[in-house]
Give the backbone structure.
Amino acid sequence: MNDITVSAPSKFVILGEHAVVYGKPAIALAIDRRFTVRVRRSNEFRINNEASDIRTSPHMRYIIGQHNMIPVSVNLDSKVPAGSGLGSSAALSVAFSAALRALNGFRLNPESIAKEAYEAEYYAQGRGSPMDTSVSTHGHGIALNVPNSKENHLWNISKNDKTWDISKIEVPKMTFVIGYTGIRAPTGPLVEKVRKYKDRNKFASDIVDEIGNITLEGMDKIRKNDVEGLGKIMTYDHKLLSILGVSCNELNKLVDASLPYSYGAKLTGSGGGGCMVALTDKPKIVSDVIASRGGIPYIVSTGVDGVKIEYN
Ligand code: PMV
């Protein structure tokens, strides 16, 4: 096999970002904006047809190191803006890990891919949870550390003193609109900001616990198909995340503009810029108000496949 194309989805977080880093519950959905990676063996490392040291990308360097590879030529095509809170580096890591496995003739084992991609993210960022890489691998919807039935269990991932129990979830048909502020905000510094705040203040630690509690309530609303109840919890989560210091004016502006036409709205991902998400049954109006406030709207289809081979 000398040429493999693999794609992996990006994601948004319904509830639980930041708190999930500390082992609290979270819920994330894969979305139909994918990162596509084509790899083939080569006599030198190449990225997008130019000679390049692939190892300057920490994610790819980590993954290459796990596969003892001869040089490869890689073509990257992303429909996910980097630093937007939609998990672009996780989707890259998942797709690249799967592509190298397929190139070496291995079957795609989702648990191994999710774990390797998480280690690559951790290596690159020095922190974080396995949420993005697990949802990008599995697709559809996942919950972390939410009590669930045995049949829904996917895998456990542990790091340092934390373990995340990852399960698949059934998500009823709901419409979400994502609003991108256009502000690129890398994840690592925001996760670090919350960690410092939490270490210094019992108050911040209580907010993290509260995010965990309302995420469990949100899971209950999803199970009951209660969009109104879920929306209210999302809006409350946005307030808690703002208190933790990870929102910004541009995000608040898009959230406020969406709320009159939505069940709820919040920032999604690490914040500081990046994206917000609204749960709504008026996606066209919400897209228009997001655009009128300078955001870039995406109406999101969920029920999206995880990592998969596109061509070989
Ligand atoms: O900004 P993103 O897409 O990398 O989302 C990060 C989600 C956090 O909970 C803030 C960090 C993490 O690793 O879970």
In short: The CA atoms of residues 60 and 275 lie 25 Å apart. Residues 175-301 form a domain with the Alpha-Beta Plaits fold (CATH 3.30.70.890).
